[in-house]
């Protein structure tokens, strides 16, 4: 019991960070499921969402700023896909991945230019940033809200994919890209929709993430992005429940490691986990086994 | 063209280049931007070629280059800091545990060997993975190596997260050129050997290559280890160029930069990588500098938008254009060579002759 009391703050922080990773990881896993592309720019879209919020809050009230931030982020995700990935659809997979790295480079440099390289103070969001006490541990309300909100959003997304027409189209496209086109699925709108959903969740995730950490820097998106990708691989890439569970496991492990005083290795642990998973079970926890025919 | 004349031409060209560099060094002041670009460009050319050996010639998409450079740089730094200045460098760790220094060339090679050993160990599990999984796993390893080198417990060896400094650096611009040149020459010879042909076969079709009797695991490991060896050496050179090293320098952003250099030069072209690394460094450090200056006037027109950081935005846009519209890069898969130029002129000459003949009819 005493151990739990001591480690409760870390555990709670872990669950909260896990929820934020989960929201980013869904963007990775959906894009990978359909395009077989590691969207390296996704972490930077997450960072840009944070910056938009910082600048929006200086000129307008919060109930305008949040919807605006979400809309702009979604628009950015949509544009990135149209401009940087769509022209390369028939190109080898490596060139589209390089294009993703290029977009990430561009977004980071753009952010560097706009912010002047200074860390931008993330505005406190009323109610979310309030301090509360849970089981004797003091924390921000966002810590408790994040997992709940994450689960609600994920359930909504799963319902969308299972029961709507566009969801069916997404499942078909991820199963077989070419055949789904032959069946009359408008593949471009399906892909755009994937990016829109991914960016929407990243925007929400960035709001929750940066409320916990005060500063937004141009490279703030790189690390959470990579970790979310690891979570997606861990859970089995292409699988949404897998990505969410993977993200929670990674978030919790990382914070427990921090609690044990091994902060230097909290990032390294994530990657070590990735490598172990890739070698032992390359399809992840919930991934489907793919058999290549020669 | 005969083989002998080709060799003479190439040797002449290399000597000429070295002579030009030597003269430049006498003419321009040593603080000139030109030398920054030349030195850094030569170092990046080496690491870009080593990455090209892996990505372009063997078809292994690895993103671990920064990690191997870190290993090379640290090995070089740790082994060459003079014994008398160790106490001040390792001030938090009682002067460190390494209490000797070895000559610079040996330390560079040692850096390469350490990187190669790590590559061998990492390669055992990782090289079984395919395409993007391999990329993300090697990227992960680079991050792990960076975290380990910043660990306090290893402080007596690596100085923790503090700077390593006071190790010997090069003064002349010729030094990085000669070292990088020798290394690139070795890589080129490797590519032209039977091993190189096996690498290319693996790149084009793994299954067909295996059917032709190429040992996949062995050749992949070989390419990975050799590429890391040269990345380690270039890491040592980078340490010499920067005069201080710190583990936090070798982030994944560095690997991305090198990858972009390879892409701009043309995946699968050694000379392309060399040319583009000089262009890349020149653009990012020198030619676009004017964009960072916010008092730029054309006539009396104050150019808007210019301020610190704009250079990098423009640069990133240029890179995106290359990636999207010139997918083959500067050289594609071709190589720059004397013979190619000679053939080009000969063909032009012949063409003119033919058209002349046509006109006379």
From TrEMBL, chain A:
Organism the protein comes from: Anaerosacchariphilus hominis
Cell inner membrane is among the record's keywords: yes
Keywords: Amino-acid transport, Cell inner membrane, Cell membrane, Membrane, Transmembrane, Transmembrane helix, Transport
GO BP terms: D-alanine transmembrane transport; L-alanine transport; L-isoleucine import across plasma membrane
Localisation: Cell membrane
Family: Belongs to the binding-protein-dependent transport system permease family. LivHM subfamily.
Organism lineage string: Bacteria, Bacillati, Bacillota, Clostridia, Lachnospirales
Major site of localization recorded for this protein: membrane
UniProt keyword annotation of rRNA-binding present: no
Any one Gene Ontology cellular component term annotated for this protein: plasma membrane
Protein name: Branched-chain amino acid ABC transporter permease
Entry GO MF terms: L-isoleucine transmembrane transporter activity; L-leucine transmembrane transporter activity; L-phenylalanine transmembrane transporter activity; L-valine transmembrane transporter activity
InterPro entries named in the record: ABC_transp_permease, BCAA_transport_permease
Ranges annotated as spanning the membrane: 12-30, 37-56, 96-114, 144-164, 185-209, 229-253, 260-280
Pfam families: BPD_transp_2 (PF02653)
Membrane topology: Multi-pass membrane protein
UniProtKB/TrEMBL annotation, chain B:
Alphabetical UniProt keywords: Cell membrane, Membrane, Transmembrane, Transmembrane helix
Subcellular localization(s) per the UniProt record: Cell membrane
InterPro entries assigned to the protein according to its UniProt record, in alphabetical order: ABC_transp_permease, LivM-like
Single GO term (MF): branched-chain amino acid transmembrane transporter activity
Pfam families, A to Z: BPD_transp_2
Top-level taxonomic group: Bacteria
Membrane topology label: Multi-pass membrane protein
Transmembrane residue ranges: 7-24, 60-79, 100-121, 172-191, 222-241, 261-288, 308-326
GO CC terms of this entry: plasma membrane
Chief localization: membrane
Name this polypeptide is given: Branched-chain amino acid ABC transporter permease
Protein's organism: Anaerosacchariphilus hominis
